[in-house]
Design a protein that fits this description.
The complex is a heterodimer of chains A (about 300) and B (about 250). Chain A is α+β, with helices and mostly antiparallel strands and about 300 residues long. Chain A has a domain at about 35-75: OB fold (Dihydrolipoamide Acetyltransferase, E2P) (Beta Barrel), CATH 2.40.50. Chain A has six helices and 17 strands. A five-stranded mixed β-barrel of chain A has the order 8-9-10-12-11. In chain A, β15 and β16 form a beta hairpin. In chain A, α4 (about 235-250) packs across α5 and α5 crosses α6. The longest helix of chain A has 19 residues, at about 235-250. Chain A starts with about 25 loop residues before the first helix and ends with a helix. Chain B is of the alpha+beta class and about 250 residues long. Chain B has one domain (about 25-240): 2-Layer Sandwich (Ribosomal Protein S5, domain 2). In chain B, the strands form two sheets. Chain B has a five-stranded mixed beta sheet, with helices on one face. The interface of A and B includes residues 58, 64, 66, 156 and 295 of A.
């Protein structure tokens, strides 16, 4: 068996920095770095990413300033996921405890999914008994992926999730892609049925779930069914793989991820084979064309 | 005390630098995809990779309910020194450096912001040519900044030595270290003029110590400036690719 291996030197790598040019000069905000004085005036309050020392507000992360009236905060361009109530997240169960599941959502602490905040099979108004607690591992066990919404944020920053809607629940067949949370653009909806024949969940926490489109009416008993027996046809899997590579391209070039950008990247990528999308030249080409398309649309 | 003279009659050092000159520093942030933050830093021929994971949920054993646990691992590649040497679990020297890094980084991180969490810092020396601790710390700082972890300010380290005619030398190379000059390592928080860590390899005369410490601190300030530029350049690159739309509300 022969395999085609592509080896290249580090000096031959494709320079992606051209992507950063263009609109730089007119839009670049002021950047702050740790220890830099943001303001020494009185009457300002410090928010996230700042601290007060000797009556001066200083930055503690590298990023840009956000000001809401008198509140100053510095937002890093890249960090762990900071949850907000109402966010859609995709997470992985890491632990089953008494009355709750622990979920890895790429935040600073593992998130909690309480037994009382899931839809159990058999109707919404069902009482949760001791038997349900013993059955918890049957519903969700370690390693399972779920989609959920942030219900609450505890004092220490831990997130409480809930899945009491038919939109959310256990995920079955598909691909998980992890990107930096700040690359996900906040939209009205994070669930998309793309016209190319796949569904996508853009979790605000940077976890993206790509799955074949299914008829949503069949699901309906609380989202604990996992259909692992159906064989997804090859053409669907190719679409999913291509989407995965497109998202990877956008993430690598630090471009924002939302339905339009992903679709544009998908359209631009059609001239390549799925596997070729991992080549540096193709990555650059697709990213460049997508960026161009997005900028034209903006103007 | 020193065997060879570290400074020639023309006032140049063994590698041709002037006494207060740093070695060339080149750095790059975000070199890996998988960790939350990563950085590569080379200072002369000393080359170091740093990767930061976290803050993430600490294991039950390491958990501290008040502040974050900083977990460091310093290792040297087999090929990093002149003589190949396999150190599967590190030697005594790297254990010491690991502990020092952990303490120094904890001094810079705003630990109270991340209760019950843990930050893992992995450092790999690819080529060792003197001032390994200092370069590792600088790389770790850049990786922490890349990971978006709250720091009081940059924490930078620099070494300094003293020639026979009592001229302080900044940023000691391996050759100067083994030539018998005393080496002083200072890790400083340059903006607030604080020292987080100090270490000497040999004795200094008390009258000289102050001068050498100040030389090292000046080196830290220069290094901070270089690191700051690199961070700003990196931020511009990330932000501009998405037309800064990620910060627009």
């Amino acid at each position: 068996m022969t395999t085609h291996v592509n080896i290249r030197l580090a000096v031959d790598r494709v320079n992606n920095s051209i992507l950063c040019q263009g609109l730089v000069d007119n839009k670049q905000p002021r950047l702050f770095t740790p220890g830099e004085v943001v303001t020494s005036q009185h009457g300002f309050m410090k928010g996230h990413g700042c601290y007060v020392e000797e009556d001066e507000i200083k930055a503690s992360v590298a990023g840009v300033m956000e000001q809401v009236n008198r509140l100053i905060s510095i937002k890093p361009l890249k960090s762990r996921y900071n949850g907000e109530i109402g966010d859609v997240v995709v997470g992985r169960i890491v632990d089953v405890q008494q009355k709750r599941w622990k979920v890895d959502t790429n935040s600073k602490l593992d998130s909690a999914l309480l037994l009382s905040s899931v839809n159990l099979p058999g109707g919404e108004l069902r009482r949760r008994s001791a038997e349900d607690e013993q059955m918890m591992r049957k519903y969700l066990q370690e390693g399972d992926l779920i989609s959920a919404e942030v219900q609450n944020i505890y004092d220490d920053g831990q997130l409480a999730l809930y899945t009491r809607s038919l939109k959310y629940g256990k995920l079955s067949q598909g691909i998980l892609v992890k990107v930096f949370p700040s690359l996900i653009k906040r939209r009205k909806t994070h669930f998309h049925n793309l016209p190319c024949g796949a569904s996508i969940i853009l979790g605000n926490n940077g976890f993206i779930w790509i799955s074949p489109t299914v008829n949503s009416e069949i699901e309906g008993d609380g989202g604990f069914t996992q259909n692992l027996t159906d064989v997804i046809p090859r053409c669907d899997r190719e679409v999913i793989a291509r989407l995965r590579n497109c998202i990877h391209i956008l993430a690598q070039c630090k471009m924002m991820l939302y339905d339009t950008s992903i679709l544009y990247a998908y359209e631009e990528s059609l001239k390549y084979d799925v596997k070729d999308l991992l080549n540096q030249e193709c990555i650059f080409d697709v990213a460049f064309l997508t960026q161009h398309k997005l900028r034209i649309q903006e103007i | 005390m020193s065997g060879n003279n570290l400074l020639s009659d023309q006032g140049l050092r063994l590698d041709g630098r002037r006494p207060h000159e740093l070695r060339r520093i080149r750095c790059k942030l975000g070199v890996f995809e998988q960790p939350d933050g990563s950085a590569y830093l080379e200072q002369g021929n000393t080359k170091v990779l740093a990767a930061v994971f976290g803050p993430h949920q600490a294991s039950q054993k390491k958990m501290n309910v008040d502040e974050v646990t900083v977990n460091c691992q310093y290792s040297m590649a087999t090929f990093s020194t002149g003589e190949r040497k396999n150190r599967p679990r590190g030697d005594r020297k790297s254990t010491e450096i690991t502990m020092n890094l952990q303490k120094t980084l904890s001094a810079a991180i705003k630990t109270e912001l991340y209760p019950r969490s843990q930050i893992d810092v992995y450092i790999e020396v690819l080529q060792a040519d003197g001032a390994n601790f200092a370069v590792s710390l600088n790389a770790a700082t850049l990786a922490l900044v890349d990971a978006g972890i709250c720091l009081k300010e940059y924490v930078c380290a620099c070494t300094a030595s003293l020639s026979k005619n009592n001229t302080p030398l900044t940023d000691v190379s391996h050759l100067e270290e083994v030539s018998g000059g005393p080496t002083l390592t200072v890790a400083a928080l340059p903006t607030s003029d604080k020292i987080a860590f100090i270490d000497t390899s040999q004795r200094f005369h008390l009258s000289q110590l102050q001068v050498v410490v100040e030389t090292a601190q000046e080196g830290c300030r220069q290094i901070q400036k270089i690191m700051d530029e690199a961070v700003k350049k990196h931020l511009t690159e990330i932000g501009a690719a998405g037309d800064w739309s990620n910060i627009a509300k």
